[in-house]
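Annex B, item 7. Sequence and C-alpha cells for protein A, then protein B.
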Amino acid sequence: MNRVSVCCLCWVWACTIPLFAQTKWFNPLKEEVSVIQNQGFPEEIGKSFVRLPDRAKEKVRPEVWNLSRNSSGLSIHFYSNAPQITVRYGVTSRFAMNHMPATGVSGVDLYAINSEGEWLNLTGEYRFGDTITYKYDYIDKDAYHQAGYEYRLYLPLYNTVKWLEIGVPEEASFEFIPRRQEAPVVVYGTSIAQGGCASRPAMVWTNILERRLDRPVINLGFSGNGRLEKSVLDFIGEIDACLYVLDCYPNLIYTDKEEVFRLTVDAVRQLRATRPTVPILICDHAGYTDARVNAVRDTLQDRVNEAGNEAFSQLKKEGVDELYYLSFDEIGMPADARVDYVHLTDLGMTVQAESYEKKIREILHEPIGQTVTTRPVSQRREPQMYEWKKRHDEILRLNESDPPKRVILGNSIVNYWGGTPVAKAQNGPKSWKKYMEPAGFRNLGYGWDRIENLLWRVYHGELDGYQAQEVVVKIGTNNLDRDDDEEIVRGIVFLLKAIQQRQPGARIKVLGILPRRDRESRVAGLNRAIAEAIAPLGLSLTDVGDPLLKEDGKIDESCFSDGLHPNEKGYGKIVKKIIQ
C-alpha cells in the first residue's frame, strides 16, 4: 500500500470515529423490566423476540415451534426527542419470499405518536445484510414541547430477530416504555394473521388493529399451522386476555366438515373452561380471490364456514356466553385484495383490520363516533409536568391494589387540585385533604385532557375491576378553543354513556364546566345545553361555578391562579357542592 493510500485510510478512519461516537445505542433486552410489547408470557420470554416460551417446544408440533421464533406482532415502544433514529439488528433466515418483500419478511417499521395522539409513519433508508439497518433522519419537533414523540417500532413478520439496538445522537433523550399492563386481544390464526403478505410489519392486520384500538394485540398466527390445536390453545388460555380471536379456518380447508365442527366446539369449550368470562370471537374464512370462478375453492371456503356457523349455533344453544361470530359477509374482502389466491395485500390487511375492529368494538363496548370528541385518543401535551401514559399505568396499578370508593375524572383543574396520585403542582391541597380525602376520592384528573382523552382512559381500564360508589366527571374546558358547543355536548353525552356502561351501580355526578376569564357567557350557555342533553340518560348537571363569579357575571380573579385554574380559595368555594 502506498503512502497516499495509507493517508486516505487514516483520514477516513479519523472521520468515522466521531460519527460512531456521536450515537448512543440502547438494547431492549438489557432493560430491568420487559419492554417487548404484544407478547404473552413476559416473565418467561420478556427478554427475547419470540412468541412462545421454551416449555412449548416439547408440547407443540415442530412447525408451530419454529414459527413461534418469528417476531410477528411484537413491538418496542419508547420516548425520544432525537432528530435522527437508527435501528440495527440481525436475523436468522432469508430476507424475502417469492410473494412477500424483504421489508415485510425481515424489515421493521417505525411510527411516532404526537402530543395530540396522532399516528405518524416514519420512512427511512434501509439496508439488508448481516446487520440490517434502518435510519430515520430529519425528524421534526413536536408542536407543543421539546420532549419528542412516543415511538412504536414493529418487528419482522417472518424472521427471527437475534439481536437489536436503537441508536440516537448523544445529546438526545431516550427511554424505553415498559410492557403495557392492559389485557390484550389474543389472535390465534394462520399465515394471514402472521403477516402474509404485508409489505411492511405495521401493515399486518393485527398491527393495524393494535393501532386502531390502541391496545395490545398478541399475534399467534402460524403460517400453514393455525389448526385449533389443543396444545396451542393450552398456552393461549394462560394469557389473561380481554378477547380471544379464533381465525384458523384457512388452514382447515382440507379437513372434513365434521372435524372442523368438532375442533371449533372443543376449542371454545377448552378456553371457556380456563377463562369462563373472556369473550371469544370465531371468524369465517375471508375467502379466495377466484372463488366465484373456481368451484373447488368456492366449495372449500364454504365448507369450513358452514362448519363454523354450525359450531357457533351449537355452542350458543348450550348456553355459552360471550361468544361471537365474524361472518364472511361482514369481512367483505374484495377480490383484488390478495397477492395470490389467499394471502393479503396491504389493501386486504386494511379491510380485514377494519372489519375486525368494528366487531371487537361492539364486543368490548368501545364505540367511536363521527366527531373528534367521540373518538378516543391519547395525548402528551405536558410531559414536562408528567407523562400521561405513566400516570395512566400508575392509576391502573393503584386501582387494582386499592380499589377506590369514589373517583373524580377530569383535566388539570382536577389533576392539580391534590390527592393521589400526587401531581408536581397542587393548587388546592388543603381543601382536598380536608374534604375530598375523607370522602374517599381518588384523583383521576390529567393535565390538558379533552373529552376524547378522558374517553380513551375510560376505554382503557380506569373504571374497570372495581365498583365505585360515586363517579364525578369534570371535563370540557380544554375543548373550548377547538370545538363548537354542539361537538362538546355530543362528546360529553358519548363519554357519560361509556361511564354508565362500566360503572352501572355508581352514582354519576356531572359537574358543569367552570367559568373562566373572558369565556363566562359561553360557559354558562354550554352548561345549560349539557344539562338538557344528559337528562335522557337520567343524569343532571351540578353547576359549581356560581361561587366563583362576581355580581357582574365575570370571574372573581381572587379565586383563580390564572383565570382558569382555581387556587386554594377557589377550590374551597366549590368543594362542598362536589361532595354533597
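Protein B:
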Amino acid sequence: MKKFINCKAASLALILAMVFMTAGCGASGGSSAGGGTSADGTQESSAAGDGASTDNASGEKIVNIGITDSLGGMNPLTNDQTWVNKYAIGLQFLPLLDLDEDLNFQPMLADSVTTEDNRNFIVHIDENAAWSDGTPVTAEDVEFTFLRLASPVIANPTLMLYAFEGVNDDGFVEEGAESVEGVKVLDEKTVQFTTKYPIALTTFQNTYAFYLHTLPKHILGQYSEEELSTLDWFNHPDVVSGPYRVTAYDVDHYISYTANEQYWKGAPKIEKLNFNILDSSQIYAGLQSGEIDVTHHTMTAIPQEDYENIEALENVSVVYGSPVTNQSVFIQTANIPDERVRQALVYAIDRNQILEQLMKGHGEIVDGFLSSASPFYDESITPMAYDPEKAKALLAEAGWDGSQTLRFYVNSGDGTFVNAAQAMAAQWTAVGIKTEIQTVDLATLMTIAGTTDYDLFAVQYTYAPVDPYPDIAWLLGGEGSWTGYGNEEINEALAATQTSGSIEEMKQYYSVVDKKVQEEVPMFSAYIISGQGAVNKRLTGVNANVYGFFINVHEWDIAE
C-alpha cells in the first residue's frame, strides 16, 4: 500500500500492504474459487477441492493458497502495491530483491544492490536471469519498466518515483520518454539509479527494489504507453521471469497459475498453483477439508474465533508471525481538524479489550507506526489508555456537539476487524461520537483512500520493520495523503533517518515521529497483529512466515 501503498503494506508496502490487507453488504469473495479458462482455451483447475493433491488424470501437483483480499488486477504497471497484488504479480515478474524471514534482503532478479554515497545505487542483474523464452534479462528491461511505471499516460499514482533525477515532482516523466537522468544502463546487466537527495540503502531496497517487477522490453516495447495500460497480454503472459505464469483469474474469486518449466532458478515442483479468494469465514473449513493448503499472515484475514480450531487440526502446522501487521485507522485530518477530537477517538476505545477478546491476545497495542518487531521501536512510548471520561472532556473543549456523523470505511474481507469496528463504534457512541461503518472490499477501499472522501478508514498495513520511512513519509505527507497531515518536526526527523549512521540514532528520530503522532493523532493503531499462518503437513519447503513466503516457491513440493 505505498502511495506507494504497502497495505503491504503499504510496507510496502507502498507493500502494501500492506498494505496492506473487512460485516456487511460490501463483502466480496464469498464463494470458493471456480475453474477458469486459460488463453489457449483449456480448463484451468482452480477449484478449492484440488488442494495439495496430485491429479490422478494428469499427474499434476496442485496447491491452493487461501486468501481473503481481493485482487486489483494482473498488470504491474497499473496496480497498487498491496500484498496480494505484489505476490500475484511477483510470481511471474520477479522483484529485484525480496525480504526473508529474518528481515534480510535476498537476491531475486538482482544479485547485488550497492551504494557509496546514498544517491547512486548500482543494481546488477543476475548473470543467469532469463525470460522464459530464453532471452536474458537485461538492464534495458529494468530501465524500460521504470520509464513505463513513471509514464504520465499510464499514471500509476502509487509509486514515489519523484525521488529520482529527471522525474517530475508529480512522480512522472515526460510522455514518451526513452531515457531519464535518474536511470542509466551501464552495461547489459548493470543499471544505475540516481536520486535527487540522499536516501538510505534500506529505503532504496525496500521501496524500489522490493516492488519493481521488471518487464520484458523485447515483448512489450512494441506497444504504446496507452496500449500498455489495458494490454490483455498481462492476463495470460507467455514470457515471464518468475516461477509461474497466470492462465486465468477473477479479481473476486481466484487466480490460476501454471509452472514456468524454464524458470532460470529451477523448474517448480508444483505444476499448478491457485490463489482462492474466499470469505474469511470459509478459511477454517477449507483447511480442515484439505481444500485449502496454505494461508498467509498478511493476505489471509482469519477470524480470531477460528484460531484455536485451526490450531487443533491434525493436518496443518500453525505458525504465528511477528507483530508486523498494523490494523491502522487513518483520519482525514482535513475533515477532523481538531486534534482534541482525534485524541478523543483513541481515548474512547478499549484497545486492550479488543485485542484480548477478538485477537485472543495475538498481538500488541502501540501508538504510532512501529511495533516491537522493528529495530527502531521505542518501548518508552506508553499507549494512550482507555479513558472515556477524558474523551468526553476533550470533545467538550473542542465544542463537539455530536451532530456530525463520521464515515468509517473498513475492509469487508477482514471479518475480525469488522467486529472490532462495530465495538469501536459502540464505544464512540458512548462518548457522543456518531459513526457510520461502510464495509467494502479491499480494492474499493484503496480507491476510496485515494479520493480522500472519508473521515476514517482502516486497513491492515505492514510497515516494513527495517525501513518504515517511505510509508510514514507518504502517510504524513500533507494534503493529498491518506491523513492530509503534515508536520515540519516530523519531516526533519524523517530526513535525518536517511543519512544517519547507526540504528540507535535512527531509533531516536523515529521516536520523535511516533511521539508526535501520538500527540496529534493523524492515525492510530487499533492493534498490531501477530497473524496466524497455516500449512498443510503434506507440503514441504513452504516458508510459513510473514516475509520470504515465495522466495523459494519453486522448491515447494507434496510429500508422497
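Comment on protein B: Residues 1-50 have pLDDT under 50 and may be disordered.
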